[in-house]
Every structure is written in structure tokens, then in C-alpha cells.
Amino acid sequence: MVCMFSAVLLLTFFPTQSKAATMAETSTLPAAKTSSAEKSAALVTRLNEIKAIDKSSLNGTERKQLRKESRSIKRELKQISNGVYLSTGAVILLVVLLIILL
After folding, report:
1. In the prediction, which pLDDT does 49 show?
2. Burial 67-77 (b: 16+ CB within 10 A, else e)
3. Which of 11, 27, 28, 79 satisfies CB 3.0 to 4.6 Å to 89 for a cystine?
4. Do the Cβ atoms of 68 and 4 come closer than 8 Å?
């Protein structure tokens, strides 16, 4: 029992991302979801462009602007994503509770 409890506690510090699996996109999706997908794709493209820039030729203020822009893009991407983050320990604990209760 003690080993199982310690294993659950150790696994609580390893977060994993859990997302619902999507089959195929249908035409019944609302326009907001497709526009957010397009927006996130554009933001990811811009982030890749920023990463590809040769920063050694830029001065300090230009580098600072690029950092601010990349941070704001990352914040926007976090807001757009609909992922649910559960730690492995939490998932194991939920499974054990379900087994005990059912």
C-alpha cells in the first residue's frame, strides 16, 4: 500500500496533455472554430519566421521587439488551445477511485 501511495505521489509531478481525439472535420463546425484554427496557423507561421531570422544582424531594440512579439504570440496560442492538462498521478488516482467506487 505504501509503495502504491509513493508511486502515485511521484507520478503527480509529470504532467501530460490530454486532448479529445477528433475524427474528421465536418462542415457543421461553427465559423469561430475554423477562424481560430486559421489564426493559430498564422501565428505558428509567424513564430517560425521569427525563429528563422538571423538575430546577429539586429540591434538591441529590434531583438527586444521580436522577443515581445514572440511572447505575445505564445500567449495568444495558449488562449486559443483547448487542451486539458492532467498529471499522470491524477489520472492514476482517478482510475483507482473509480475502481474502488464501482
Report:
1. 92
2. eeeeeebeeee
3. 11
4. no
Whether the CB-CB separation of 15 and 86 falls below 8 Å is answered with: yes
Nearest C-alpha neighbor of 36 from the set 4, 78, 80: 80
Distance CA 20, CA 102 (A): 24
Residue 8 C-alpha cell reads as 502515485
Q: Of 52, 57, 85, whose CA–CA distance to 70 is shortest?
A: 52
C-alpha distances (whole Å) from 32 to each of 36, 76, 79 are 6, 15, 14
Minimum mean pLDDT among 5-9, 21-25, 51-55, 82-86: which range? 21-25
Which helix (H) or strand (E) is 78 found in, with range?
helix 60-80
Reading the block at residue 75, the C-alpha cell is: 500567449
pTM (whole model) above 0.85: no
AA letter at 37: A
